[in-house]
Amino acid sequence: MPVVLWAIAIGLIFLAVAVFLWPRIRAQAKPGLKQSRRHDFGMEAAEEISIPAYYKTPEHIPDPPSKYGQDRLVLLARNPNWLYAYWEVSAARQENILQELDGLSPWEESRPVLRLYDVTGVEGFNGSNANSFVDIPIQDCTDNWNIKVGQPNCTFCLDLGRVLPGGRFITVLRSNFVATPRATISDRIDEEWMWLDGIYRSFTRYQSGLSSPTLIEEIRGRMDLPQGISSPTLSESRKGD
Which tens digit of pLDDT belongs to each residue from 68-105? Predict the structure, then answer.
């Protein structure tokens, strides 16, 4: 029994000494750890830095040609109130115009103009059945023009031509048709949208194996759509209401 007590007493003494000396041992171990970390960090930072390859600037790229030898008159709609046109008249076309003017009037006595036609609602435009037209004087060296129309939601066509001293107009080139966009809110009414929860349920069923034709028929049935209409709009039957 006394031996056991002595063993317990010695164990307690060693435990007390260890608790007392542990902070000092830990404090002595920290500087070495910090030094080791600094050493490792220095090794990681000592990487070889490569010089980027020399970038050779490309040689001078020539500007695109101003002429392509093609007859063209292009009309574009910039916004509801403005149009933009650019054109090119080839040498062959100029020669044809000179032959057409032979015996009528010298080229120098004619003047170049842009004739803008309002062809809104006109079918089969032939140059003489426009709603109205206006002549815009230009110079012979001009090859583009900004045109203020101030007419939203209208269709236009443009002629590049010559006006003779007697008032006769000769068309050199004719442009495409363009329509200016609206300047107001759209008057289309489409308030019969399908509810989002219905769309979600339909696609959930589609993911579970429902075939595409069956899914389309189900959506059409829920929205009460007639055949051939992809979005509910004002149908023909409503026009007579």
Answer: 889 999 999 999 999 999 999 999 998 888 888 776 77
Class of domain 72-179: mainly beta
Residue 145, token pair as written in the block: 């023009």
Query: Global pTM?
Result: 0.55
What gap in Å lies between CA 48 and CA 28, rounded to an integer? 36
Instruction: Show me where the domains of the chain are located.
Output: 72-179, 196-232
Tell which residue, 147, 113, 149, 117, has the closest CA to residue 130. 117
- What is the distance between the alpha carbons of residues 134 and 174, in angstroms, rounded to a whole number? 15
